[in-house]
# Entry
Amino acid sequence: MRMYDIIKKKRDGGELSTQEIDFFIRGVTDGSIPDYQISALLMAIYYRGMSVRETCDLTFAVRDSGDRLDFSAIRGVRVDKHSTGGVGDKTSLVVAPIVASYGVKVAKMSGRGLGHTGGTVDKLESIEGFRTTLSEEEFIGQVNRVGLAIVGQSAQFAPADKKLYALRDVTATVDSMPLIASSIMGKKLAADDDCIVLDVKTGSGSFMKSVEKSKELARLMVDIGRSAGKKMVALITNMDRPLGNAIGNSLEVIEAVRTLQGEGPEDLTEICTVLAGYMLSLADMGTPDEGKALAKKAIENGSALAKLKETVAAQGGDPMRIADPETFPKARFRCAVKSVSEGYLRSADAERYGLASLSLGAGRNTAEDGIDYSAGIVLKKKVGDYVHIGEEIATLFSDNEGAFAEAEKTLRDATEIGSTPPPEEPLVYGVVD
Ligand code: URA
# Structure
């Protein structure tokens, strides 16, 4: 078999066989296929797409490219939630402890920030001492003891995806349906959960910009998961605007804690209780609505917050940060962005808000870059609010004062203020089950 023939076949619109896809992923994993041929095939897939059968084959090949986790020693139902990536999306930090507080097991593998989107692992590492690398024994032991553990992915986990993702990131081939579905589901299936709730983001801040495409992606991922024997459901949720008010690592942990204290922003609280409701429902704890009511109860009675504190302590993090989030180190500098016009805040482009946060130091430009954990943005006005001249729209935080000018410009360009209120947009566009 030759890589040249596989590229040519896909370039001309052909359907790759299971053997050809396996050959490709084996070569990606062992380094025998050069980057230029991998990139050429990625671009051919981007333009020609893949059938459902090809996408399933690609997913299973990615899953099998490295170690598969064995969670059979975990006692109880194992439920995971995965977001396709967004701006201000700290839902995992809220829903995982809610669900675990009911005895449902959450053995979570999370990612780092990607492009303009943030990652749960970076957010957790803003808590001093928090270990996002645990041995398999420690991980499973903690899930059995506490009910929740959150770690990053090891190098042996779905290594083909690491390679493919890095190349997609620099060859403009990220937003391809079969490539996203196989990347996400390849990793999800290499873990050993019984049930998975997918949060498929739609809108400017997500990788799928239209609701129709997001629904199609959701359907595809649900079908792939089911074909591997998982209980699956996907929600299509709004990522046209940032979620909640905080963007940036420790700022988002603080907001997650406030949400678990019952003082979170309305949109974040709503999405988190809906997602947790579906997770509890897949774990046979009633209907999604009953699950949502349970989620609200776990916030009201403090059990979810206590579970987060217990998890942070178990993984070596300072529980004081959760008990009193005011103790998080503060950025050295702050800058208030004030409105120069009056009217309704009509839109806040999530992708560009994410880029502004990145430029303040909250994310990486290259894989080697460090992160300024206290950098980011706190929104003072949300879409739909009325804004007066001179009123603060947002506060920027950074240890690098020189970063404010560019971030402020990006933010202003990404914010539309007009004389009429914006049309209502739902938080949840639909459910694929
Ligand atoms: N998240 C992933 O893990 N992979 C993608 O392709 C997109 C989002």
Remarks:
- The chain has a mean pLDDT of 95.
- Residues 187 and 265 are 31 Å apart (CA to CA).
